[in-house]
# Entry
Amino acid sequence: MAIEYYDVLVAGGSIAGLTTARECSSNGASTIVIEEDHEIGTPEHCGGMVSLGGLQKLGVILDSNNFQNSISKARICSRSTSFEMPAEKQNVIVLDRRGLDKQIAKQAENAGAEIRTRCKFKSLSKNQSRYIVKTSEGEIECKYFVDAKGLGSLKDTGKNGILASAQFEIYATWIDGRTVEIFFDSERYPGFFVWIIPSGEGRGKIGVAGRGINTSLALNEFINSKGKKYSIIRKIFAPIWIGGPRPPFVVDRTLVVGDAAGQTKPTTAGGIFSCGMAGILAGKAISKTIEKDDNRSLYEYEKNWKSMFQKEFNSMLFARKVLERLDNKSIDEIFSSLSKKTIKDVSNFSDFDFHSSALDLFLKTKLATDLTKILIENEFRRVFSSKNDN
Ligand SMILES: Cc1cc2nc3c(=O)[nH]c(=O)nc-3n(C[C@H](O)[C@H](O)[C@H](O)COP(=O)(O)OP(=O)(O)OC[C@H]3O[C@@H](n4cnc5c(N)ncnc54)[C@H](O)[C@@H]3O)c2cc1C
# Structure
Protein backbone atom coordinates (compact mmCIF):
# COMPACT_ATOMS: atom_id res chain seq x y z
CA MET A 1 0.00 0.00 0.00
CA ALA A 2 1.38 3.45 -0.95
CA ILE A 3 2.44 5.50 2.01
CA GLU A 4 0.33 8.63 2.60
CA TYR A 5 2.01 12.01 1.97
CA TYR A 6 1.10 15.54 3.14
CA ASP A 7 3.16 18.73 2.87
CA VAL A 8 2.41 19.44 6.55
CA LEU A 9 1.59 17.08 9.39
CA VAL A 10 0.38 18.65 12.63
CA ALA A 11 0.47 16.48 15.76
CA GLY A 12 -2.14 17.77 18.23
CA GLY A 13 -5.60 19.07 17.32
CA SER A 14 -6.13 21.90 19.79
CA ILE A 15 -5.88 25.68 19.41
CA ALA A 16 -2.22 25.90 18.26
CA GLY A 17 -2.34 22.88 15.95
CA LEU A 18 -5.66 23.85 14.40
CA THR A 19 -4.68 27.47 13.67
CA THR A 20 -1.45 26.18 12.06
CA ALA A 21 -3.42 23.76 9.90
CA ARG A 22 -5.97 26.41 8.93
CA GLU A 23 -3.19 28.78 7.84
CA CYS A 24 -1.22 26.15 5.88
CA SER A 25 -4.23 24.74 4.06
CA SER A 26 -5.62 28.22 3.22
CA ASN A 27 -2.34 28.81 1.40
CA GLY A 28 -2.61 25.58 -0.59
CA ALA A 29 -0.41 23.17 1.43
CA SER A 30 -1.79 19.65 1.79
CA THR A 31 -2.24 19.38 5.57
CA ILE A 32 -3.29 16.74 8.08
CA VAL A 33 -3.93 17.13 11.81
CA ILE A 34 -3.66 14.00 13.93
CA GLU A 35 -5.27 14.08 17.38
CA GLU A 36 -4.91 11.27 19.89
CA ASP A 37 -8.23 11.94 21.64
CA HIS A 38 -11.50 10.72 20.23
CA GLU A 39 -13.00 14.21 19.80
CA ILE A 40 -11.64 17.68 19.01
CA GLY A 41 -11.93 19.93 22.10
CA THR A 42 -12.49 17.02 24.48
CA PRO A 43 -11.50 16.54 27.23
CA GLU A 44 -11.61 20.29 27.80
CA HIS A 45 -8.83 21.62 30.02
CA CYS A 46 -9.46 25.35 29.96
CA GLY A 47 -11.45 28.14 31.63
CA GLY A 48 -12.31 29.60 28.22
CA MET A 49 -11.44 33.19 29.17
CA VAL A 50 -10.30 35.23 26.19
CA SER A 51 -10.56 38.81 24.93
CA LEU A 52 -12.80 39.62 21.99
CA GLY A 53 -9.83 41.45 20.41
CA GLY A 54 -7.67 38.33 20.79
CA LEU A 55 -10.37 36.17 19.27
CA GLN A 56 -10.63 38.51 16.32
CA LYS A 57 -6.86 38.36 15.75
CA LEU A 58 -7.15 34.58 15.78
CA GLY A 59 -9.59 34.90 12.87
CA VAL A 60 -12.58 33.70 14.88
CA ILE A 61 -16.01 35.33 14.77
CA LEU A 62 -17.78 34.83 18.09
CA ASP A 63 -20.28 31.98 17.72
CA SER A 64 -23.27 32.51 20.02
CA ASN A 65 -23.37 28.74 20.68
CA ASN A 66 -19.93 28.95 22.31
CA PHE A 67 -20.51 32.18 24.25
CA GLN A 68 -21.03 31.71 27.99
CA ASN A 69 -20.56 35.10 29.65
CA SER A 70 -18.95 38.54 29.45
CA ILE A 71 -16.78 39.81 32.30
CA SER A 72 -17.49 43.22 33.85
CA LYS A 73 -14.90 43.27 36.63
CA ALA A 74 -12.18 41.39 38.46
CA ARG A 75 -12.06 41.06 42.25
CA ILE A 76 -8.56 40.32 43.53
CA CYS A 77 -8.43 39.01 47.10
CA SER A 78 -5.69 38.37 49.61
CA ARG A 79 -6.34 36.63 52.94
CA SER A 80 -7.61 39.79 54.61
CA THR A 81 -8.34 42.38 51.95
CA SER A 82 -9.43 42.80 48.33
CA PHE A 83 -9.78 45.29 45.53
CA GLU A 84 -11.84 45.44 42.36
CA MET A 85 -10.88 46.44 38.84
CA PRO A 86 -13.40 47.29 36.16
CA ALA A 87 -12.86 45.12 33.10
CA GLU A 88 -15.52 46.36 30.65
CA LYS A 89 -12.88 48.01 28.44
CA GLN A 90 -10.90 44.77 28.03
CA ASN A 91 -13.91 43.05 26.40
CA VAL A 92 -13.17 39.77 28.11
CA ILE A 93 -15.57 36.89 27.54
CA VAL A 94 -15.94 33.30 28.67
CA LEU A 95 -16.29 30.65 26.00
CA ASP A 96 -17.05 26.98 25.79
CA ARG A 97 -13.52 25.94 24.81
CA ARG A 98 -14.70 22.67 23.27
CA GLY A 99 -16.89 24.65 20.90
CA LEU A 100 -14.06 27.08 20.06
CA ASP A 101 -11.70 24.25 19.08
CA LYS A 102 -14.40 22.68 16.92
CA GLN A 103 -15.08 26.04 15.26
CA ILE A 104 -11.40 26.37 14.27
CA ALA A 105 -11.32 22.72 13.19
CA LYS A 106 -14.22 23.51 10.84
CA GLN A 107 -12.36 26.53 9.46
CA ALA A 108 -9.28 24.36 8.83
CA GLU A 109 -11.40 21.66 7.21
CA ASN A 110 -13.14 24.23 4.98
CA ALA A 111 -9.71 25.45 3.89
CA GLY A 112 -8.78 21.91 2.81
CA ALA A 113 -7.08 20.38 5.88
CA GLU A 114 -7.85 16.82 6.96
CA ILE A 115 -8.41 16.11 10.64
CA ARG A 116 -8.00 12.63 12.02
CA THR A 117 -9.02 11.91 15.63
CA ARG A 118 -8.01 8.86 17.67
CA CYS A 119 -4.70 8.91 15.80
CA LYS A 120 -1.70 9.16 18.09
CA PHE A 121 1.72 10.48 17.11
CA LYS A 122 4.37 7.88 18.02
CA SER A 123 7.70 8.89 16.50
CA LEU A 124 9.45 10.97 13.86
CA SER A 125 12.32 9.93 11.62
CA LYS A 126 13.89 11.42 8.54
CA ASN A 127 14.31 10.02 5.07
CA GLN A 128 16.20 12.57 2.91
CA SER A 129 13.85 15.52 2.29
CA ARG A 130 10.85 13.90 3.98
CA TYR A 131 9.86 12.98 7.51
CA ILE A 132 8.30 9.65 8.30
CA VAL A 133 5.77 9.98 11.10
CA LYS A 134 4.76 6.80 12.89
CA THR A 135 1.20 7.01 14.20
CA SER A 136 -1.20 4.57 15.85
CA GLU A 137 -2.86 4.30 12.43
CA GLY A 138 0.28 3.64 10.38
CA GLU A 139 2.99 5.73 8.75
CA ILE A 140 2.54 9.12 7.10
CA GLU A 141 5.21 11.06 5.22
CA CYS A 142 5.41 14.82 5.30
CA LYS A 143 7.82 17.63 4.49
CA TYR A 144 7.05 19.85 7.50
CA PHE A 145 6.23 18.55 10.96
CA VAL A 146 4.43 20.67 13.56
CA ASP A 147 4.56 19.64 17.22
CA ALA A 148 1.36 20.97 18.82
CA LYS A 149 1.07 18.20 21.41
CA GLY A 150 0.81 20.55 24.39
CA LEU A 151 2.66 20.25 27.66
CA GLY A 152 3.61 16.60 27.10
CA SER A 153 6.28 17.84 24.68
CA LEU A 154 7.81 20.02 27.42
CA LYS A 155 8.40 17.32 29.99
CA ASP A 156 12.14 17.04 29.44
CA THR A 157 12.84 20.71 30.09
CA GLY A 158 12.70 20.61 33.88
CA LYS A 159 9.71 20.67 36.19
CA ASN A 160 10.06 24.15 37.63
CA GLY A 161 7.67 25.74 35.12
CA ILE A 162 4.95 23.12 35.51
CA LEU A 163 2.24 23.35 38.18
CA ALA A 164 -0.53 20.88 38.86
CA SER A 165 -3.97 22.42 38.54
CA ALA A 166 -7.56 21.40 39.17
CA GLN A 167 -10.66 23.07 37.81
CA PHE A 168 -14.21 22.16 38.77
CA GLU A 169 -17.25 23.35 36.89
CA ILE A 170 -19.96 23.98 39.43
CA TYR A 171 -23.53 25.12 39.85
CA ALA A 172 -23.76 27.55 42.75
CA THR A 173 -25.96 30.58 43.28
CA TRP A 174 -23.12 32.34 45.18
CA ILE A 175 -21.02 32.76 42.01
CA ASP A 176 -20.92 36.47 41.29
CA GLY A 177 -22.62 36.98 37.86
CA ARG A 178 -19.96 38.72 35.72
CA THR A 179 -17.06 39.07 38.18
CA VAL A 180 -13.86 37.05 37.85
CA GLU A 181 -12.42 36.40 41.31
CA ILE A 182 -8.80 35.64 42.15
CA PHE A 183 -7.67 34.54 45.64
CA PHE A 184 -4.00 34.74 46.64
CA ASP A 185 -2.70 32.85 49.63
CA SER A 186 1.01 32.08 49.62
CA GLU A 187 0.62 29.28 52.17
CA ARG A 188 -2.33 27.46 50.64
CA TYR A 189 -1.56 28.09 46.95
CA PRO A 190 2.17 28.90 46.75
CA GLY A 191 3.15 30.46 43.42
CA PHE A 192 -0.40 30.67 42.05
CA PHE A 193 -3.97 31.26 43.16
CA VAL A 194 -7.59 30.15 43.15
CA TRP A 195 -9.75 31.49 40.32
CA ILE A 196 -13.49 31.71 39.82
CA ILE A 197 -14.63 32.28 36.25
CA PRO A 198 -18.40 32.89 36.10
CA SER A 199 -19.76 31.09 33.07
CA GLY A 200 -23.42 32.05 33.20
CA GLU A 201 -26.34 32.30 35.59
CA GLY A 202 -25.39 30.33 38.73
CA ARG A 203 -22.52 28.52 36.99
CA GLY A 204 -18.75 28.84 37.12
CA LYS A 205 -15.34 27.29 36.68
CA ILE A 206 -13.37 27.26 39.92
CA GLY A 207 -9.74 26.30 39.73
CA VAL A 208 -6.53 26.19 41.71
CA ALA A 209 -2.84 25.68 41.07
CA GLY A 210 0.16 25.91 43.36
CA ARG A 211 3.60 24.45 44.02
CA GLY A 212 3.56 21.09 45.76
CA ILE A 213 -0.10 21.17 46.77
CA ASN A 214 -2.84 18.58 46.54
CA THR A 215 -5.05 20.51 44.13
CA SER A 216 -8.15 18.41 44.68
CA LEU A 217 -7.95 18.86 48.45
CA ALA A 218 -7.18 22.60 48.16
CA LEU A 219 -10.10 23.19 45.82
CA ASN A 220 -12.57 21.19 47.90
CA GLU A 221 -11.48 23.13 50.99
CA PHE A 222 -11.91 26.42 49.17
CA ILE A 223 -15.39 25.57 47.86
CA ASN A 224 -16.51 24.21 51.24
CA SER A 225 -15.24 27.38 52.96
CA LYS A 226 -18.07 29.23 51.20
CA GLY A 227 -20.40 27.28 53.51
CA LYS A 228 -23.12 27.29 50.87
CA LYS A 229 -24.76 24.79 48.55
CA TYR A 230 -23.13 23.75 45.28
CA SER A 231 -23.00 20.90 42.77
CA ILE A 232 -19.91 19.83 40.86
CA ILE A 233 -20.73 18.90 37.27
CA ARG A 234 -17.23 18.43 35.84
CA LYS A 235 -13.71 17.98 37.22
CA ILE A 236 -10.52 18.65 35.28
CA PHE A 237 -7.01 17.86 36.48
CA ALA A 238 -4.32 19.16 34.14
CA PRO A 239 -0.88 20.72 34.40
CA ILE A 240 -0.28 24.37 33.52
CA TRP A 241 2.95 25.96 32.27
CA ILE A 242 4.25 29.20 33.81
CA GLY A 243 7.94 28.92 32.90
CA GLY A 244 7.94 31.17 29.81
CA PRO A 245 8.76 30.34 26.20
CA ARG A 246 11.13 27.46 25.42
CA PRO A 247 12.90 28.21 22.13
CA PRO A 248 14.11 27.11 19.63
CA PHE A 249 10.66 26.93 18.06
CA VAL A 250 12.15 25.79 14.73
CA VAL A 251 14.62 22.96 14.24
CA ASP A 252 15.27 21.68 10.72
CA ARG A 253 11.73 21.47 9.22
CA THR A 254 10.03 20.90 12.58
CA LEU A 255 8.08 23.74 14.22
CA VAL A 256 6.91 23.66 17.83
CA VAL A 257 3.77 25.67 18.66
CA GLY A 258 1.61 26.50 21.68
CA ASP A 259 1.99 24.89 25.11
CA ALA A 260 4.57 22.56 23.54
CA ALA A 261 6.81 25.64 23.12
CA GLY A 262 5.91 27.14 26.52
CA GLN A 263 3.91 29.95 24.91
CA THR A 264 1.39 30.47 27.74
CA LYS A 265 1.36 33.60 29.91
CA PRO A 266 3.67 33.12 32.91
CA THR A 267 1.27 35.13 35.12
CA THR A 268 -2.04 33.35 34.53
CA ALA A 269 -1.09 30.39 32.29
CA GLY A 270 -3.62 31.69 29.74
CA GLY A 271 -2.71 30.42 26.30
CA ILE A 272 -5.66 30.65 23.91
CA PHE A 273 -4.39 33.86 22.32
CA SER A 274 -0.59 33.47 22.45
CA CYS A 275 -0.71 29.77 21.42
CA GLY A 276 -3.29 30.39 18.72
CA MET A 277 -1.18 33.26 17.33
CA ALA A 278 1.84 30.93 17.33
CA GLY A 279 -0.13 28.58 15.09
CA ILE A 280 -1.00 31.39 12.69
CA LEU A 281 2.60 32.65 12.55
CA ALA A 282 3.98 29.12 12.11
CA GLY A 283 1.46 28.43 9.34
CA LYS A 284 2.41 31.65 7.56
CA ALA A 285 6.12 30.78 7.77
CA ILE A 286 5.54 27.27 6.38
CA SER A 287 3.40 28.68 3.54
CA LYS A 288 6.09 31.20 2.63
CA THR A 289 8.76 28.50 2.76
CA ILE A 290 6.76 26.36 0.34
CA GLU A 291 6.07 29.32 -1.95
CA LYS A 292 9.71 30.48 -2.07
CA ASP A 293 11.21 27.00 -1.77
CA ASP A 294 13.58 28.41 0.86
CA ASN A 295 13.68 26.85 4.35
CA ARG A 296 15.07 30.05 5.88
CA SER A 297 11.53 31.51 5.85
CA LEU A 298 10.61 28.98 8.57
CA TYR A 299 12.62 31.00 11.09
CA GLU A 300 10.31 33.98 10.54
CA TYR A 301 7.83 32.14 12.77
CA GLU A 302 10.10 32.37 15.83
CA LYS A 303 11.16 35.93 15.02
CA ASN A 304 7.56 37.15 14.57
CA TRP A 305 6.23 35.38 17.68
CA LYS A 306 9.01 36.90 19.76
CA SER A 307 8.49 40.39 18.37
CA MET A 308 4.80 40.12 19.30
CA PHE A 309 5.12 38.50 22.75
CA GLN A 310 8.69 38.43 24.13
CA LYS A 311 8.55 41.83 25.88
CA GLU A 312 5.19 40.95 27.43
CA PHE A 313 6.39 37.57 28.58
CA ASN A 314 9.55 39.10 30.10
CA SER A 315 7.39 41.49 32.16
CA MET A 316 5.17 38.61 33.22
CA LEU A 317 8.16 36.48 34.20
CA PHE A 318 9.40 39.37 36.33
CA ALA A 319 5.97 39.74 37.99
CA ARG A 320 5.95 35.98 38.60
CA LYS A 321 9.40 36.05 40.24
CA VAL A 322 8.15 38.73 42.64
CA LEU A 323 4.89 36.87 43.36
CA GLU A 324 6.71 33.62 44.12
CA ARG A 325 8.65 35.35 46.91
CA LEU A 326 5.78 37.21 48.58
CA ASP A 327 4.35 36.02 51.88
CA ASN A 328 0.75 36.72 52.89
CA LYS A 329 1.72 39.79 54.95
CA SER A 330 3.35 41.37 51.89
CA ILE A 331 0.41 40.52 49.64
CA ASP A 332 -1.95 42.17 52.15
CA GLU A 333 0.28 45.25 52.35
CA ILE A 334 0.54 45.62 48.57
CA PHE A 335 -3.22 45.35 48.14
CA SER A 336 -3.85 47.84 50.94
CA SER A 337 -1.43 50.35 49.44
CA LEU A 338 -3.28 50.49 46.10
CA SER A 339 -5.13 53.77 45.76
CA LYS A 340 -8.45 54.01 43.92
CA LYS A 341 -6.72 56.21 41.34
CA THR A 342 -3.94 53.66 40.66
CA ILE A 343 -6.51 50.89 40.19
CA LYS A 344 -8.57 53.06 37.86
CA ASP A 345 -5.53 54.16 35.81
CA VAL A 346 -4.21 50.63 35.53
CA SER A 347 -7.60 49.25 34.51
CA ASN A 348 -7.86 51.98 31.85
CA PHE A 349 -4.49 51.05 30.42
CA SER A 350 -4.45 47.33 30.88
CA ASP A 351 -4.98 44.94 28.04
CA PHE A 352 -6.04 41.36 28.74
CA ASP A 353 -3.51 40.02 26.23
CA PHE A 354 -0.64 42.46 26.78
CA HIS A 355 0.14 43.35 30.40
CA SER A 356 3.41 45.27 30.15
CA SER A 357 1.86 48.75 29.76
CA ALA A 358 -0.13 48.22 32.97
CA LEU A 359 3.01 46.99 34.75
CA ASP A 360 4.99 50.01 33.51
CA LEU A 361 2.24 52.27 34.85
CA PHE A 362 2.27 50.50 38.22
CA LEU A 363 6.01 51.08 38.48
CA LYS A 364 5.58 54.82 37.90
CA THR A 365 3.15 55.27 40.80
CA LYS A 366 3.85 55.70 44.50
CA LEU A 367 3.27 51.95 44.72
CA ALA A 368 6.78 51.41 43.36
CA THR A 369 8.23 53.01 46.51
CA ASP A 370 5.82 51.11 48.75
CA LEU A 371 6.60 47.90 46.88
CA THR A 372 10.35 48.30 47.37
CA LYS A 373 9.81 48.72 51.12
CA ILE A 374 7.39 45.79 51.29
CA LEU A 375 9.79 43.56 49.32
CA ILE A 376 12.76 44.39 51.54
CA GLU A 377 10.74 43.56 54.67
CA ASN A 378 9.49 40.40 52.94
CA GLU A 379 13.09 39.29 52.26
CA PHE A 380 14.05 39.92 55.91
CA ARG A 381 11.13 37.77 57.07
CA ARG A 382 12.22 34.98 54.69
CA VAL A 383 15.80 35.09 55.96
CA PHE A 384 14.72 35.06 59.62
CA SER A 385 12.12 32.33 59.16
CA SER A 386 14.64 30.09 57.33
CA LYS A 387 17.20 30.72 60.14
CA ASN A 388 14.59 29.75 62.73
CA ASP A 389 13.78 26.61 60.67
CA ASN A 390 17.46 25.51 60.78
C1 LIG B 1 -7.31 24.31 34.09
C2 LIG B 1 -6.87 25.20 32.95
C3 LIG B 1 -7.57 26.38 32.70
C4 LIG B 1 -7.15 27.21 31.65
N1 LIG B 1 -7.86 28.35 31.42
C5 LIG B 1 -7.49 29.16 30.40
C6 LIG B 1 -8.25 30.31 30.10
O1 LIG B 1 -9.26 30.61 30.75
N2 LIG B 1 -7.83 31.12 29.07
C7 LIG B 1 -6.72 30.82 28.33
O2 LIG B 1 -6.36 31.59 27.43
N3 LIG B 1 -6.00 29.70 28.58
C8 LIG B 1 -6.36 28.87 29.58
N4 LIG B 1 -5.65 27.73 29.82
C9 LIG B 1 -4.48 27.41 28.96
C10 LIG B 1 -4.92 26.85 27.61
O3 LIG B 1 -5.89 25.86 27.77
C11 LIG B 1 -3.68 26.28 26.88
O4 LIG B 1 -2.63 27.21 26.92
C12 LIG B 1 -4.01 25.96 25.44
O5 LIG B 1 -5.02 24.98 25.36
C13 LIG B 1 -2.76 25.44 24.72
O6 LIG B 1 -3.12 25.01 23.45
P1 LIG B 1 -2.21 23.99 22.64
O7 LIG B 1 -2.90 23.76 21.35
O8 LIG B 1 -0.82 24.48 22.61
O9 LIG B 1 -2.15 22.67 23.52
P2 LIG B 1 -3.29 21.76 24.14
O10 LIG B 1 -4.57 22.51 24.24
O11 LIG B 1 -2.74 21.13 25.35
O12 LIG B 1 -3.50 20.64 23.02
C14 LIG B 1 -2.57 19.64 22.74
C15 LIG B 1 -3.30 18.59 21.92
O13 LIG B 1 -2.38 17.60 21.50
C16 LIG B 1 -2.98 16.34 21.66
N5 LIG B 1 -1.89 15.35 21.79
C17 LIG B 1 -1.01 15.20 22.82
N6 LIG B 1 -0.17 14.18 22.55
C18 LIG B 1 -0.52 13.71 21.32
C19 LIG B 1 -0.01 12.67 20.50
N7 LIG B 1 1.01 11.90 20.90
N8 LIG B 1 -0.59 12.45 19.30
C20 LIG B 1 -1.65 13.23 18.88
N9 LIG B 1 -2.18 14.20 19.64
C21 LIG B 1 -1.61 14.46 20.83
C22 LIG B 1 -3.82 16.48 22.93
O14 LIG B 1 -4.81 15.48 23.03
C23 LIG B 1 -4.39 17.89 22.74
O15 LIG B 1 -5.59 17.87 22.02
C24 LIG B 1 -6.03 26.86 30.86
C25 LIG B 1 -5.32 25.67 31.12
C26 LIG B 1 -5.76 24.84 32.14
C27 LIG B 1 -5.01 23.55 32.39
User: Anything to note?
Assistant: The chain has a mean pLDDT of 91. The two ends are 68 Å apart (CA to CA). Residues 300-325 form the longest helix (26 residues). The longest strand covers residues 231-241.
